[in-house]
Amino acid sequence: VNITNEVFIGGSGIVNDMGIRKPSYYAYYLLSMLGNEIISLDDGCIVTKSDKCYTILLYSHNNDINSLADYQDIYQESGIKKSFERKYSLNILNIKNSTRIITYEVNEYTGSSYNYWLSMGSPDRLSKEEKEILYKASYPKIDFKYSKKSSVLNIITELKGYGAKLIVLKNLK
Hints:
- There is one protein chain.
- Helix content is 22%, strand content 39%.
- It has five helices and eight strands; from the N terminus they run H-E-E-E-H-H-E-E-H-H-E-E-E.
- It has helices at 23-32, 71-76, 78-82, 113-119, 128-137; strands at residues 37-42, 45-50, 53-60, 86-95, 98-107, 141-147, 150-159, 163-172.
- Strand 2 (45-50) and strand 3 form a beta hairpin.
- The longest helix is centred in the N-terminal third of the chain and has 10 residues, at 23-32.
């Protein structure tokens, strides 16, 4: 194997050869957090349940998701990206306990090591410090909230461009 210090060379996989996680890593990561019982399945939304937890995965994608596309072409088509901006108002009924709400968000602006690398000027090589910054920056945005017992829990959120948001609702006693 010819080991180089190149950052993104277009290869498939969920991490690059420097150990920096690609956006596809977090797609699988969010999917792995879904519960084992599907409550609802719709285009752009999956709701699942496990013992004391509900998960809501909101996602956006290009209609050509099953075909290979040059990411640079997709990245430059900002008009297409704007068409994937969606706002959601989710009403969850009959919350019997206080709830911890954990939100994980990954999109083109948050958690994408590739986009961070592009914003650095697409360097062919990274210094040790730059590599560490990219490694640390390529994590989902995570928010924590708390909600008291309520007959209706309203969650207002949005997706910007291509991305995903996982909302975890954990019952607290």
